[in-house]
Predict the 3D structure of the following.
Amino acid sequence: MDDEIILPGRLSEACGVCGGFADDQPLAFLTCFSLYALQHRGQESAGIVAGPGEGRKMWLKKGMGLVSDVFPDSADLKGIVCRLAVGHVRYSYGEGGRSPENSQPLKLRYRHGELAVAHNGHLLNSAELREELERQGAIFQTDTDSELLAHMVARQGSSNLEEALADVVPRLKGAFAFIVTDGHKVIGLRDGYGFRPLSLASIDGDGYFMASETCAFDTIGARFIRDLEPGEMVVLDEEGMHSRRVLDNSCPKLCVFEYIYFARPDSNLQGRNVHLVRRELGRQLAREHPVKADIVSGVPDSSIAAASGFAEEAGLPYEMGLVKNRYIGRTFIKPTQKMREEGVDIKLNPVRKIVEGKRVVLVDDSIVRGTTSVKLIKIMRRAGASEVHLRISSPPVKGSCFYGIDIPDARDLIAYNRPVEEIPSVTGADSVGYLSMERTVEAVGLPAVELCRACFTGDYPLIND
């Protein structure tokens, strides 16, 4: 994706969560390696909570930076005696969200012991719930809506975490994948629409593990079992695994951007491999917006699969027209527009000998503000491309997101109230072609009603219902 996406006026996460329960397993160590696999979902902070430790208290380590920054010697985690662990990687928007106290998992003490929370998503009624809790005397330690769940659990009469969560979760409105632990059990929760992904796997022996993406299971040798259902609570403890529905069975609405950009190519979501979906997006794009050209190139890394699919369908050679500096993080998570704009030239460099004198099809997964697209077109022209045709493997982004993906105010979007025909003159491309919504859905292979497409269509579940 070409820009960092920022939700107007709210602190919101699009993060990665994982956690499990098992005997005779170095769970803190396995959780660390799972976070490496989920690093693409957040590069601002990382953390792990594990237990039960000395004095039956949970061990916590978290901090700012990559997983390798927070856990420079992951082998040390093998010495932590525990049978449960929960991990989190995070990114936020703006400078206000980058405070260390906002890193997760959050660990708090309450009358029944300790509670740790890891969250991916955004709660629509967070302001209302926060005000209510503050009137009751709650003192918040962070700016995140994730802390709301802990305060609500603490106010329940039951010492049974499972029952307390079953009571409070129906009050949460929005998108969430929570992994919660009290040092005795690990509980996974998914909202009633399933906006954010969460899957379950087994590990050697009688253990189980949950993660935002299946690529985390591959990293630690876990065996995928299934995706959690929307509205489902899965409990992992010494008795094994059991589940219950805590929210009404709503129509699934998995975020389509998980397929287009967010998820790692080797992950599977709802039985669909992300790489294969992206390649099919490219094929559909070539059918819908053919163009006379010499080569096809993709914007590394999330657009490579779509570009290869476009080239295969169009019968054109795929070439590496842009090289990515692997030591520069995603421009998507840069917290300011200035940093995003400065990051593109550092991050991507054209291969002049490949693009010089060529008519180039440049495939990207989306255009948000358009600032990066403008820079990419200039980069290709400076390298000598005779023509640059921009092809986008998703529909025009026309609205904000309120479910955990931070998209700018609609007025800042390049496609907001602007005909597609005007996009080439804005970006400097010779032509621009967006994949239609119908063909996007066809490429994903799920019914349209089972995908959240609100940022494309303006049809917002929970808000327009």
Remarks:
- Residues 1-13 have pLDDT under 50 and may be disordered.
- The domain at 16-250 is CATH 3.60.20.10 (Glutamine Phosphoribosylpyrophosphate, subunit 1, domain 1).
- Residues 274-288 form the longest helix (15 residues).
